[in-house]
Amino acid sequence: MHGRDGWLFVAHDSTDMANQLTGRRVLTGGQRKGWVKALRARTAAVGEHGCRYVFAVAPATHHVFPEHLPPGLKRVSPRPIERIAAAMADDGDGLPPLVYPLAVLRAAHDEGHPPSSRVDSHWNDWGAFLGYREVMAALPADLPARRLERGDLVLREAVVTGDLGARVAPPMSAETVIADLAESSIEVVEDNRVHNAGRIARFHNPDAPDACCVLIGSSSAGVALKFFAASFRTLVYAFARSEFDCDFVRESAADVAISLINERYLIVQPDKAATPPLRETARLRAAKGLAVSEKRAVRLYAGWATPRQGCYEAPG
């Protein structure tokens, strides 16, 4: 969807984002209760093993940059995130902290530090770092973790063709902000190279406090991956949209589990009965050949993580 000033936005995707914006597709009362039930169940299940849980949502660019939406497009409220937040506030017992960093992303934009590119549906490195800091602030103070500050980064500008820019003709490119870690000893211990759903990767950072974090999330979580990998001795990442896998968290011996999903996926109520375990999803997609090349996998970690010998297991 073409907006003002050369901005592009997600519109007719699997979550029907255009109709979410205009109120033609809403989160029902039953779906809202389903989210609260699922979040409470996740918190209790991982808590049985001494693990903390945080639920974080990466704001859609439509709400970070509303002034750049197409003329005549009117957003309506309450949005799914607002309905879920209200339901959690009304019945907060046994629920995880909710992190939705819209205000900090909007403030960064107003200050001249755009947290996203005009041609991408995700936050950029700077936006991901701001979101990461909000998540880390929601963790218990006694949880051993390295909490990155602005001085731990080296910022640079680059021209990119984002995921949306690549889908229009001719392709569109725009400037964005890349945030490199000033220093990094992070190693890639495991990466099954499965594309999107089913991807599982494990990282080791000898310079971080001895704690294990499991990060389960969609593409926006992937952008923030380097910051979380810098914060914990062990980080286990699994790609999922609205799904969660308590057994996967337990098997990883996690001290903290974080869900970090794209806002538009909130319209999809998590359904445990219909969701295979994360490793089963990985196995099924690998068997179908849905994997990226080892060369591309190496590029994902360029500048911030070193692959260990043999870390890229053969998919399938």
Structure in a nutshell:
With 316 residues, the protein is of the alpha/beta class. It has helices at 17-22, 29-47, 61-64, 80-90, 102-110, 125-138, 219-223, 225-229, 246-251, 278-287, 294-300, and strands at 52-58, 98-99, 153-160, 174-181, 187-191, 200-204, 212-217, 234-239, 256-262, 306-307.
How would you portray this structure in words?
There is one protein chain. By secondary structure, the protein is of the alpha/beta class. Helices cover 30% and strands 18% of the residues. The strands form 2 sheets. Strands 2-1-9-7-8-6-5-10 form an 8-stranded mixed sheet. Strands 3-4 form a two-stranded antiparallel ribbon. Helix 2 crosses helix 4 (80-90). It starts with 16 loop residues before the first helix and ends in a 9-residue tail after the last strand.
Number of helical stretches of at least 4 residues: 11
* Rg result: 19 Å
The unreliable regions are none
Number of strands: 10
What percent of the residues sit in helical stretches (DSSP H or I)?
A: 25-40%
Secondary structure category? alpha/beta
- So what's the overall shape? globular
Spell out the key features of this protein.
11 helices, 316 residues, alpha/beta
Helices and strands in order, then pairings?
Blueprint: H1 17-22, H2 29-47, E1 52-58, H3 61-64, H4 80-90, E2 98-99, H5 102-110, H6 125-138, E3 153-160, E4 174-181, E5 187-191, E6 200-204, E7 212-217, H7 219-223, H8 225-229, E8 234-239, H9 246-251, E9 256-262, H10 278-287, H11 294-300, E10 306-307
Parallel strand pairs: 1-2, 1-9, 5-10, 7-8, 7-9
Antiparallel strand pairs: 3-4, 5-6, 6-8
Helix pairs in contact: 2-4
